[in-house]
Amino acid sequence: MSINKTISLGEQQTLLVVKTTDFGVYLATEEGSNDKVLLPKSQVPEHTKVGDTISVFIYKDSEDRLIATRMTPTLVMGQVNKLNVKEVGTIGAFLDWGLAKDLFLPFKEQTDKVRQGEQALVTLYIDKSNRLCATMKVYEYLSTDSPYKRDDKVSGMVYEISDQFGAFVAVDEKYSGLITRQQLFEPVRVGQIIEARVSNVREDGKLDLSLREKTHIQMDDDATLIYNSLTANNGFIPFNDKSAPEAIKKEFNLSKNAFKRALGRLMKENKIRQDEKGSYKL
Q: Model's pTM, two decimal places?
């Protein structure tokens, strides 16, 4: 078993037992090293002796001291994972990651306010005080080598929403995806699990996503939506193919192009007619 060259905060690593005490064993990268970390007695395997190697995770205890544990956290440095929010305090939230000391998520590292009992998609970072913390800003940590291709159906968590770009999605909680602002025809929120269609795979491997089906399939659903609206409003709606895009989106959550395609379908089927006032059910 190879021994790690440095003791690294937030990582699972194999270290050498260099000293035994009544309260645990000290681990290091090599004999004689001044860089040591304690593995408490309750976690030391039976019959452990100097010269043995042990796989541990390195973090800091409640007194901010570097410490080792044989427990396996649900998140290590460089990974992204969903963690349960145990508590929200005055300076941030605390997440359950499988260790005795909860993981701190500062308010400034939240892309939206988290709530107790919900889940947050996070990765680890080391703050200016050399402490392990969580951040919801996971964009740089998501993979771009997904197995998905255009028109595949995918599932993922919304982890950030940008007025400029749209909704950022972690597909399978690990691949980089985006629902562009132009494709957001229904509200989504940070932390929401969404089902989407891959509308494009970019050259860099990132996924463009759509909450809508392919055009010819979606047109049927849109036409049904409009026809049902006509039925519910005594056969008339004050919308036609000249209506403002903003008004159409507000009323139907459709783009103007999608609305016009659906109207065209209904007119072709002789189910509606339209004039300058709006559309009528036949």
A: 0.74
